[in-house]
Design brief:
By secondary structure, this protein is mostly helical. It has helices at residues 3-7, 63-77, 82-86, 123-140, 149-156, 161-178, 183-199, 210-225, 227-230, 236-245, 253-273, 280-289, 295-314, 321-337, 366-384, 394-420, 425-438, 445-462, 467-476; strands at residues 346-348, 360-362.
Length: 482
């Protein structure tokens, strides 16, 4: 029996069934050669541009605790001299941003909702809202055919000051990370948003408010991209999303869109920190009740299946071979039964073009991009946590080499999908996440360089933090001594 068969690397037991560009994706010809992308400097110094490491560990629960944690983060990590430097911010307008005195909160009576005046009269706030609609909403509406965050959510902000502040804070944070926009404004809006959230602690009816649910999901992105400034992922708003997601059996409307976003946010966190998902039962319940007849439903199904595989791999339960077999079979079944629209519309495997590291895999819509990447993540996890993998003797060495080779193939496909469909921004986050976890398996310099380019591009151009991954891989690849 071969090492490949021992590994059960393919759920069907057939090496030809494995999902690599050379086996699954047909060659459709050589496309016009694009000019090489510019990723900026790859010097070691670029890693230090943003410092901080992601924290590990499972988030705790509790409705009031997550708000208090977020509030503690804000008080600890705001610049102590910022207020003094800005003076009366409501009375001044900086070149890169302002907090306008034209838009005060209406006089607030305890027990009544605070409101902001609409329409906005401050150009910078209008700019921030437009930035969210034009740019950041794409991150949330990934795999959402209704584009809920770009439409319904921002429309809710007209009447929800909490949601509006969450949008303004997140847009300001993103712009301050990618340009010279005033970083103080992000903290200012965040504090205002937290003040409103603290007002609803203990009010169970508030958990049914779709605008507050969307605000919490948006604040989780604020938390994620703030890691370089904080030094760790505080998980405060992640806990908040859990609180909102547990309040209804089957979400709809804005809450359904938020549910999809939270699923992706939890998968990212679980994969990076190697912890099980907190809301797995809720995801499975919704998945079973959902119609998977369309492509978006099918994509949601493989993402929930990826969540199940993650929880199997990183959970505390015994790693039973029967459970592994069941998950492998379900992953294989999804791949075989997926609609024809999931097939690549164009593909160029590695080796067709000179110095080509990643395959070109063009896909139709964002749901197809996300589905293929999550399928590949399932394969990486299943190969890594196969309970039948030999633990001793010559077969162990063969098994390790075989599994690492398969992981490298799958990582390259994930990166190829991200680069080939660069209109799907979250695909780059997925590629960066997988590189950060699996990059140490690559020993070829050109492979390493291409992956470092993805990490640098994602950090510098998109403000998705990868500095800790860069530092880790530079050490593993021994680049620091080059």
């Amino acid at each position: 029996m071969s090492a490949t068969e021992d590994l059960h690397v393919s759920p069907s037991g057939n090496l030809q069934d494995r999902y690599t560009s050379s086996a699954i994706y047909p060659v459709t010809g050589e496309p016009p050669r694009p000019s090489p992308p510019s990723y900026g400097s790859l010097e070691v110094a670029s890693v230090g541009a943003r410092s901080g490491n992601n924290a590990s560990g499972s988030p705790s629960t509790g409705e009031s605790e997550w708000i208090q944690n977020a509030d503690t983060w804000q008080s600890e990590h705001s610049n102590d001299n910022t207020q003094e430097e800005h003076g009366d911010v409501s009375a001044e307008t900086a070149h890169t941003g302002s907090f306008s005195g034209c838009l005060p909160l209406s006089p607030h009576t305890p027990g009544t909702p605070r409101r902001r005046h609409w329409p906005l009269t401050d150009e910078n706030e209008a700019l921030l809202l437009r930035h969210f609609v034009a740019k950041l909403s794409l991150w949330f509406d990934y795999c959402d055919p209704r584009n809920t965050f770009a439409t319904s959510v921002v429309q809710q902000a007209v009447n929800s000051p909490t949601l509006l502040y969450a949008i303004l804070a997140t847009s300001a944070r993103h712009l301050s990370m990618t340009s010279d926009f005033d970083a103080y404004l992000a903290d200012k809006y965040h504090r205002e948003c937290l003040a409103l959230l603290i007002d609803i602690v203990g009010d169970n009816s508030a958990l049914l408010d779709e605008a507050l649910c969307a605000a919490t999901v948006i604040l989780r992105l604020f938390e994620e991209i703030s890691v370089p400034l904080v030094g760790s992922d505080t998980q405060g708003h992640l806990m908040g999303t859990h609180t909102f997601m547990r309040t209804s059996e089957y979400p709809s409307g804005i809450r359904e869109a938020a549910f999809r976003v939270v699923l992706r946010q939890e998968i990212v966190f679980a994969f990076k920190t190697q912890t099980p998902l907190q809301l797995l039962p809720e995801y499975v319940q919704v998945d079973r009740a959902m119609d998977t007849a369309d492509d978006w439903g099918s994509a949601f199904h493989i993402m929930v299946l990826c969540a199940e595989v993650l929880s199997y791999c990183y959970g505390e339960e015994q790693k039973l071979a029967e459970t592994w077999d069941d998950l492998s079979e379900r992953v294989r079944s999804w791949m075989e039964s997926k609609p024809a629209s999931f097939e690549p519309l164009f593909c160029v495997p590695v080796g067709v073009q000179e110095n080509q590291v990643f395959p070109q895999i063009w896909l139709l819509n964002d749901c197809h991009v996300a589905a293929h990447q999550h399928y590949l993540m399932c394969q990486i996890l299943l190969v890594s946590y196969d309970p039948r993998k030999p633990q001793l003797g010559p077969k162990r060495t063969e098994a390790v080499e075989s599994s690492e080779r398969l992981i490298r193939d799958h990582v390259k496909d994930i990166c190829g999908i991200a680069l080939s469909n660069n209109h799907c921004i979250p695909a780059m986050f997925t590629a960066s996440m997988v590189i950060s976890v699996c990059g140490e398996f690559f020993i070829d310099y050109q492979d390493q360089k291409s992956m470092m380019e993805i990490l640098v591009k994602t950090d510098v151009e998109l403000a998705w933090p990868t500095a800790s991954a860069q530092t880790y891989l530079l050490e593993k690849w021994n680049w620091s001594h080059a």
